[in-house]
């Protein structure tokens, strides 16, 4: 059929009103594989939008500013807290500060796309207060011993920092019933696909 020259022009794909997007919160204990799953999803599901957190911790080898985190000094982080620029923020493992910049998330949600946050339990609890219709997903290890193996095997923390992280991990594992869904990271591909499928559930347009 010939195109109707009198028809109103169609908006570009991104501008089609798909309503508001959904906020998805992924949390779980240290070394369970949140970053690994995030990397897999970024590579295999490029349509998924990730929030890039801000942190005062130092970059690890291979971490890129603006991709894995926005790395900032303590005084800059505190200034942004004062200015109300975070959706949530917390001191994690009793050490560095982490926060989700509010603006980018609100813009993505308003544009009709979903936004995925990878944050700790304290942050997830704050988001539940302000954004109760978000989807809360807990990433769990197959076992405690496997979690410890992953943390030690990653080799990015010394003994004292590992102990601190494992203490937090016990409290986080005890809180998994607060979440809407629990995904066990027994296999990176399987767990990533389960997460994406949960994100897409109920969204016919994804
Ligand atoms: N399904 C899996 N099977 C085996 N090893 C895994 C699996 N998922 C992740 N790992 C490994 O576990 C270690 C920790 O993973 P990762 O750094 O992604 O954890 P994390 O949850 O982001 O940790 P943190 O919260 O401390 O930043 C890494 O060495 C990673 O390669
Ligand atoms: N409350 C928030 N927690 C965050 C955020 N970004 C990351 N995190 C969590 O911090 C720990 C440690 O991360 P690491 O990269 O130093 O190993 C981990 O549990 C992350 O999920 C955030 O913006 N807010």
TrEMBL record:
The keyword Cytoplasm applies. PANTHER family: GUANYLATE KINASE, GUANYLATE KINASE-RELATED. InterPro entries: GK/Ca_channel_bsu, Guanylate_kin-like_dom, Guanylate_kinase, Guanylate_kinase_CS, P-loop_NTPase. Residues 21-200 form the Guanylate kinase-like domain. This is Guanylate kinase. One of its GO terms (molecular function) is GMP kinase activity. Its EC number is 2.7.4.8. It is found in: Cytoplasm. Keywords: ATP-binding, Cytoplasm, Kinase, Nucleotide-binding, Transferase. ATP binds at residues 28-35. Its main location: cytoplasm. It catalyses: GMP + ATP = GDP + ADP. NCBIfam families: guanyl_kin (TIGR03263). Belongs to the guanylate kinase family.
């Amino acid at each position: 059929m010939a195109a109707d020259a009198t028809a109103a022009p169609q908006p570009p794909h991104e501008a089609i009103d798909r309503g508001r997007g959904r906020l998805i919160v992924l949390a779980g204990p240290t070394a369970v594989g949140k970053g690994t799953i995030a990397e897999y999803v970024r590579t295999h599901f490029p349509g998924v939008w990730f929030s890039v957190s801000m942190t005062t911790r130092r970059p690890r080898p291979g971490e890129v500013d603006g991709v894995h985190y926005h790395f900032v000094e303590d005084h800059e982080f505190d200034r942004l807290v004062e200015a109300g620029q975070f959706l949530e923020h917390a001191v994690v493992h009793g050490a560095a500060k982490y926060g989700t910049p509010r603006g980018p998330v609100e813009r993505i949600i308003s544009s009709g796309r979903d936004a995925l946050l990878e944050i700790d339990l304290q942050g997830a609890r704050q988001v539940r207060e302000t954004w109760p219709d978000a989807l809360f997903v807990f990433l769990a290890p197959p076992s405690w011993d496997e979690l410890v193996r992953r943390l030690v095997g990653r080799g990015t923390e010394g003994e004292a920092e590992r102990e601190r992280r494992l203490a937090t991990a016990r409290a986080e594992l005890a809180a998994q019933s607060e979440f809407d869904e629990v995904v066990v990271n027994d296999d990176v591909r399987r767990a990533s696909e389960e997460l994406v499928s949960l994100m897409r559930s109920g969204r016919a347009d994804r």
